[in-house]
User: Which sequence fits this backbone?
């Protein structure tokens, strides 16, 4: 929920509110939505959409964060993704988030 860290970790510009009801954009404006639930360091629930989706297509994104031995874990549920972009979203998570996040946090861990 930090615009600078999100941008640095994904390589795409992000502007993210930390407040419930606050708006966000990510990946240079390709994604947009608003926060439904924000529990710092534990959970984020967002009304989420790719900006090329037909209006009013909106999905629900749930991210939960937990500590595990040797680091942290992020669990994701992404519901109500429109059929016309299910493949793009399914392939996009690893490409635009999981891999870049892993590399970003590995760099931070090496810096210690």
Assistant:
């Amino acid at each position: 929920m930090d615009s600078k860290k999100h941008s640095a970790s994904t390589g795409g510009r992000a502007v993210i509110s930390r407040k419930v009801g606050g708006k966000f954009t990510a990946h240079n404006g390709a994604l947009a939505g608003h926060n439904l639930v924000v529990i710092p360091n534990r959970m984020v629930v967002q009304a989420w959409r790719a900006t090329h989706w037909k209006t009013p297509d909106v999905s629900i994104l749930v991210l939960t964060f937990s500590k595990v031995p040797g680091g942290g874990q992020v669990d994701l549920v992404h519901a109500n993704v429109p059929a016309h972009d299910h493949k793009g979203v399914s392939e996009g998570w690893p490409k635009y988030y999981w891999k870049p996040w892993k590399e970003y946090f590995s760099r931070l861990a090496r810096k210690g």
Summary: The chain has a mean pLDDT of 95.
